[in-house]
């Protein structure tokens, strides 16, 4: 339904690049020096975020909350970037990102709303380009170019600033999905993608003060520096590989100490088996297995600097584990097995591993769920849908880790295609969202049945050599995190692969 909006200032112009489009604004001038009323439909907007004063990430989270309360429906988030300050260089590093949203607010009403949020969060006039707790800029407003005394859209100098362009590109897909996005591209003479490439494009990331980062454990993690090894700790009696070995707290702690000595980066605690046909246990049973071990692990002095992940599809387990000190939630169902998971994750402010799986552990390997016409294409499309659902529930893409789900609703051939096709999966996701396609990618082929079938190894513990081969293939194909049982051998494998990749990049 259309709503009349009151806009300031008195001198205002709206232009449009494609005359065939029928503008949704109608103007009513009350006098030459008074306000202008605008009859406005819902518009899609892009808003940039920046912060370099105080707790920058908390500032972002608060700004998102306040924008939602003001009526913006946030639909997509860019990645998170730590950047060198521009123009005024003797100030702290910035965090930068951007969001896409829909709103019924007119452009100047939206500007007023954002300025109010900035003021309430402590921003003062200060010096131009100087430090600020939050900076909220309208990059695009619908299909319109706006020029007034107080507002210029597209934002001035947008196409020459890498710290603006990087998150802006994240909000787009390589496919142009609707007319509004076509107009955004038309605002740059060369198109947004060409403008980004001429600035340096992806070659800028990690260089020249532009790092793509994931917030975790009160720090910003640049996952591109090295492949991280996630060690598996099953606290279950029935896991397919090592069920029953680490049920006692003492055995679990001993295993953690061994993994730390072998060079593990992340320890993934699982208190519920998700092997094919595994029976589901209750929240209470899972917590009884998990929490005593988690608490003891966090007391270990050698755990400092390591990350603790909790493998669960229950929202209550995720909430309790994070409250106790876990750093990451690893959900094999991407929120499909517990309707509260995504709502809980929106408030936990920790990384969320969204994995691809069809069905649940009881049904994931049935004929229907392992049937694909093109496994990499369909996994990419379905994984994008899972992440989109998380974003709409308030989980920013800058907190998401993606996992194509090797061994989950896949045939042996499908698992191999995924290992060989990680770049294709990223590409399929990137057709809709380049930001999501650039998220850290986790793979978990360790000791899976398809390796046993290939190598003739019936017992899971005999599949470590096959695991090293699968992990190496995945790392060379673009995986950033590998989830494994045998930490020591795979730490060595990823070091060799990283050295190869460094040689190619140099």
Describe this structure in words.
With 506 residues, the protein is α/β, with parallel strands linked by helices. The protein has two domains: 41-213, 7,8-Dihydro-6-hydroxymethylpterin-pyrophosphokinase HPPK (Alpha-Beta Plaits), CATH 3.30.70; 224-440, Alpha-Beta Barrel (TIM Barrel). 36% of the residues lie in helices and 20% in strands. It has 16 helices and 21 strands. It has helices at residues 56-69, 107-120, 162-170, 179-186, 192-199, 249-261, 283-299, 315-324, 341-348, 375-392, 412-420, 422-432, 434-437, 449-455, 464-476, 487-505; strands at residues 3-7, 12-15, 27-29, 36-40, 43-51, 73-77, 80-83, 94-103, 135-141, 145-148, 152-153, 210-216, 219-221, 228-234, 266-270, 307-311, 328-331, 352-355, 400-403, 442-443, 481-484. The chain has an eight-stranded parallel sheet. Strands 5, 6, 7, 8, 9, 12 and 13 form a seven-stranded antiparallel sheet that branches. Strands 1-4-3 form a three-stranded antiparallel sheet, covered by helices on one side. A hairpin with a 3-residue loop joins strand 10 (145-148) and strand 11. Helix 10 (375-392) packs across helix 12 and helix 15 (464-476) packs parallel to helix 16. The radius of gyration is 24 Å and the shape is globular. It starts with a strand and ends with a helix. The model is unreliable at 1-12 and 16-39 (pLDDT under 50).
